[in-house]
Amino acid sequence: MLSFWEKESFVEYDFVIIGGGIVGLSTAIELKTREPQANIVVVERGVFPSGASTKNAGFACFGSLTEVLSDLEKLSEQEVFDLVKRRWDGLQLLRNRLGDNTIDYQNYGGYELLQTDDQLTSLEKLDKVNALLMPLFDSEVYRSVPEKTEALGFSTDRVKGLVFNQFEAQIHTGKMMKALQRCTLSMGVDLLTGTGVEGLDEDQAGVGVRLANGILLKAGNVAICTNAFTTKLTHTDLKPGRGVVLVTQPISGLKLKGTFHYDEGYYYFRNYQDRIIFGGGRNMDLEGETTTDFGVPDKILSKLKNDLDHLILPGQPYEVEQVWSGIMAFGETKQPILKRQSERVFMGVRLGGMGVAIGSLLGKELAELITESVNN
């Protein structure tokens, strides 16, 4: 039962944004910038963002060499260039909005580990990819650095090649998300957490947003930014993908500094101070990991530990401190879904595991789409 005051002040909004992750908060910030008098609320079903925004490994990346080459097998050169550009532009928007110190942005560079003869053939196309991306970075992105394999402590039996990316960096995911929340709240946007959305009822007057706690919000327009959980609200072309991540206890004498990938980005690890944060393994069971259920499959965790033992930290003692999972969203293409779903409902979802990179830009583009549609 709502009080008179609650009905007066807490249930009617110009814009309701569903999803309090990177895209949702970025959309709110952009909307408030464009419509400073608008009454806006962000609704998040979890106490913390529910999908991957607070559960990722903190990579400021835009694609390893083999990832880009894999994309070139399915997309034109221009489409691949545009995809990398959107990710890069999104990272710059995030950095400019929050500041490098705030999000603990560290540009140590990134490395890709090549382990098979087939993967080594990617080096033959390295110059081609650098030439493709030259207009964006004005410098070569990828460079073969096999001499660093031993210095970084990797198994020389397992690692046959190493590719360095000078533009890749890492961030502190928790600091980033808290800063986005503070920025959103400081602009006068409301934030409701701990209650999901059960459904939407749209008519000519607006949109009724039915919350799981029984409260009905009234909105002029709605933005859906729930990524992998979007199909619970409306049909759209995406599939969830669960990602497992672990973090070790501090490791004495850790040699690694930077971000690292292998197997076309399905595995990824980095240092955080003197710890290793390591995630991946979804490709071991793509069908089984197409789920919105949080959990940690034993076979994937065992694979991660085995690779720590024999590939990443051979002969070096370590202990796993914590393990968790996050839920991402994928589709037939790596392009996000950005569209007007109906007269008053808009959508920005399906980040393809690149939320840190592209989330801020997608929020900006979604806000632009909404305001242009509403004001025309």
Number of strands: 18
Structural class per helix/strand content? alpha/beta
Major sheet, described briefly? 8 strands, mixed
Tell me, rounded to a whole number, the average pLDDT. Answer: 96
Question: Descriptors for this entry?
Answer:
376 residues, alpha/beta, FAD/NAD(P)-binding domain, D-Amino Acid Oxidase, Chain A, domain 2, 2 domains, eight-stranded mixed sheet, 18 strands, globular
Task: Describe what you observe in this structure.
The protein has 376 residues and is of the alpha/beta class. The protein has 2 domains: 4-54 and 174-237 and 333-375, FAD/NAD(P)-binding domain (3-Layer(bba) Sandwich), CATH 3.50.50; 105-168 and 239-330, D-Amino Acid Oxidase, subunit A, domain 2 (D-Amino Acid Oxidase, Chain A, domain 2), CATH 3.30.9. The chain is 32% helix and 27% strand. It has 10 helices and 18 strands. The protein has helices at residues 4-9, 22-34, 65-72, 77-98, 100-103, 117-120, 126-137, 173-186, 298-312, 355-375, and strands at residues 12-18, 40-44, 59-60, 110-114, 142-144, 161-165, 169-170, 190-193, 197-203, 206-211, 216-224, 239-248, 259-262, 267-272, 275-280, 320-330, 337-340, 345-349. The strands form 3 sheets. Strands 1, 2, 8, 9, 10, 11, 17 and 18 form an 8-stranded mixed sheet that branches. Strand 1 (12-18), helix 2 and strand 2 (40-44) form a beta-alpha-beta unit. Helix 2 (22-34) runs parallel beside helix 8. The longest helix is centred in the first third of the chain and has 22 residues, at 77-98. The mean pLDDT is 96.
